[in-house]
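Probable periplasmic serine endoprotease DegP-like: structure tokens wanted.
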Amino acid sequence: MCFDSHARIPHQGVCFMIRAAVAHTVCALFALILLAAPARAELPEFTTLAESTGPAVVNIATVKTVNTSEQLKDFFQFHDRDGRFDDFFDQFERFFGDRFRGGERQERSLGSGFIISPDGFIATNNHVVEGADEVKVNLQFKGKEESYDATVVGRDQETDLAVLKIDTEHELPTLQWGDSDIMKIGQWVVAIGNPFGLDHSVTAGIISAKGRVIGSGPFDDFIQTDASINPGNSGGPLLNMQGEVIGINSAIVASGQGIGFAIPSNMARRVIAQIRTGKPMQRGWIGVTIQDVDENTAKALDMDEASGALISSVMEGEPAANAGMKTGDVIKAVNGKEVADASELLKAIAALKPGEKAELTVWRKGDTLNLTVTLGQRDAERIAGGLDNNQPGDQTAPAEAEAYGLTLQPVPDQMASQLGIAKNLGLLVTDVQDATPAMNAEIQPGDVILEVNQKPISTVDKFNAILDSEGKDKGVVLLLLNRQGRNLFRSMVVE
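Answer:
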């Protein structure tokens, strides 16, 4: 009830006017709040995208002949390195005889792919078709299912990509490439494929991460997505909201959900364009082994920041050696473009063609150099060689000594020959004590220390002298190790 402020009696007219004014004010404020509030985001609509892109996605069925006895032998060899099952294996073979030795069976598998040209070229994963005796492609054309025998035109094992070809009497629907570099974490993506043989399954999600390294090959640079990807999705497209291919679905985390990986389209597009010609993949090669530069390594090398690729060995007669590159150099840039780590260097060199010249910016003992390298041809089967140690070392007595958690001794002549190390060079690590600088530096028994701070060593006295002088001044030393014939660097803190 409303009251007059003087007479203290109700006035109905005044009360109505006040109520109307209050209501009007409340409505105005509510309208302002609605206008000021951000518009509520609606979930995207995938219907049109699925309808327009689905016909270009295919099912790939393969048949592979496998030798069951070889599979079993491989199993035993892998799981029985010590020969504990030899007797059982022999008895098994005697009992089953020829059936054990010569058994063969056909192994069938399913995957996905997508059409990249109207005349029947198809992109997929290498692991979908690798070793297959028969490859069939099933697709939907104008509402009808069609099946074709496919030919494997080209494969690239290092990026897990392959190109197939089918012959048809009509032009086929295709998918277009998108730009994977401009995609951002959190953007919507759609995966289409044949998980568990369920053809043309459509799933949606977002980009969870970019640049993932999962250990599948030397050029790992995966897009991670939570769009559902399962066995059978391999080789299928990952699409942006415009229906463009921004990735090729390739891997999953078997123990997780919502974690799938796709090869970025900008990498896949270049590889597929080359292997589509039927010629082997051409990649640049300089002939070095490399590793990342950590903080302690950068400190030992007097570098301002931990970046670039550290050269742990240079192969004799290869492009890097011919250009004057040395073990311990740090490659900072390729053709003026900085490389952050070993992985970036590998990709930058591999993106160039054999025969091209590359300008490498190199950090060497406090100086910056520019070296021009004429690239060779990368061969996936090459095995990195060891360092060519042709400088004689100091003579030393065959006595052990402990230093910074290490037990060291001269390298036996026979071991030096097996590792390709010059005689009288280096110190063999025979023991590493727990909770010591050496243990923290991941040095292992059996390693051979070749250099300390890029100085060749062969005596414990020289080893200790460098640690006591340069090591204590910087608080760290850089050790060049030979581990089972392969060179690598480790930085060790010196207190």
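The radius of gyration is 32 Å. Confidence is low (pLDDT under 50) at residues 1-11, 75-82, 383-401.

Cheers.
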